[in-house]
Structures are given as C-alpha cells and as structure tokens.
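Lecture notes, unit on binding sites. The following record was shown on slide 14. It pairs a sequence with coenzyme A.
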Amino acid sequence: MKPYAIRKAHQNDVKTMHELLLQSAQKGLLLPRALIYLYVHIRNFYVAESRGGEIVACCALTPIWEELGEICSLVVRDDLRRQGLGRCLVNACINECGALHLKKIFALTYQKIFFLSLGFNVVEKDILPQKIWADCVNCPKYPDCDEIAVLLDISEKKDAQATSTV
Ligand SMILES: CC(C)(COP(=O)(O)OP(=O)(O)OC[C@H]1O[C@@H](n2cnc3c(N)ncnc32)[C@H](O)[C@@H]1OP(=O)(O)O)[C@@H](O)C(=O)NCCC(=O)NCCS
C-alpha cells in the first residue's frame, strides 16, 4: 500500500492546510490564505493524506475564465519534498480540467523548475489579464510582482497520468 493518497479536500482538512500554507507564506514563497478563504473555496482543493490520516500537502485548481484555470496554494510539508507529492497534486488538478472544460492552466510562482518539469512553459503575465483583474490588483505586490507566470496547454500535455497515490 502506498503511503500517501491524493483526494479532494473537505472542511476538516482546512486547519492543517492553513498551517501548511502559512509556513511557506512566512518565507515569502506563496500568498497566505485566510481560514475563511479555505472554507469557502474548499471544493477547489486536493490534499495528500498519509495512511495515518495526516494532511501533508495541498493544492487548488481555481477556474478563472472560460477555458482557463489557475494552480494555486500548492504546498508540500517541507520534510516531505522531492518525493513526488507536488507532481501528484498538480496532476490531479490537470486530470480534473476535462470535467471543468478547462484547456489551459497557469500558475504564478517562484518554483519555475518544478513547473517546467511538469510541462508548463514560462509566459508573460500580460497574457493573463483576467487574473490581473480578479486578484492581482488587490495583491500587496501589485504592480511589482516578481513571480513567474507559467502556463500549461492541456491539449498539448500527452503524458499527464492519473495519479491517486504516491
Ligand atoms: C514547489 C513544491 C510544491 C514542490 O513539491 P515537491 O513534492 O517537492 O515536488 P516533486 O517531488 O513533485 O518534484 C517534481 C519535480 O520538480 C522538480 N523540483 C521540485 N522541487 C525542486 C527544487 N527545489 N529544485 C529543483 N527542482 C525541483 C524536480 O524536477 C522534481 O523531480 P525529481 O525530484 O524527480 O527531480 C514544494 O517545493 C513546496 O511546497 N514549496 C514551498 C511552497 C511553494 O513554493 N509552492 C509553490 C507555489 S506556486
């Protein structure tokens, strides 16, 4: 039996997700998410759960516009990195894109190598105006955001595998 399962998140996961995200947010690696945000958007999230029931990673797929989604709030507990959990969470999001009629997904990130390894390409932020209207204008970093925009065209990704366990 594999040690971690990837599944959709539920409300009981929120406090641990919040703590995981806060730890990386305090290091400036991602934006913090308020508890209320996580409860309201819980349907967007996947988590990685250990056999003992511990939540060790999470990731959200957020629809942004027609055919466009965003990977956000991705974090793996720091002692469990480089074991494939991040890849499995993003692949779970990619596998859901068909059901949501999303053809492209992007992320704003400092983790360029991670996303390139999953088939994303670096793009200019100005090809994502909907993200800027919806979120970026309210971000403390706007307009001097130093995150990198990466985009994946799902139709070009032939090797996204259904991965439910690590
Ligand atoms: C980014 C993050 C989610 C990656 O999760 P992970 O489980 O460690 O990543 P994976 O093990 O699935 O890595 C997949 C591939 O990405 C690349 N990669 C991941 N982390 C890397 C790093 N620190 N340096 C270089 N390459 C890296 C590697 O190619 C890796 O494959 P390999 O281990 O077979 O060489 C994790 O490092 C993290 O939580 N970081 C802090 C929060 C953060 O920055 N989130 C991103 C917000 S957009």
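Take-home: The longest helix spans residues 85-100.
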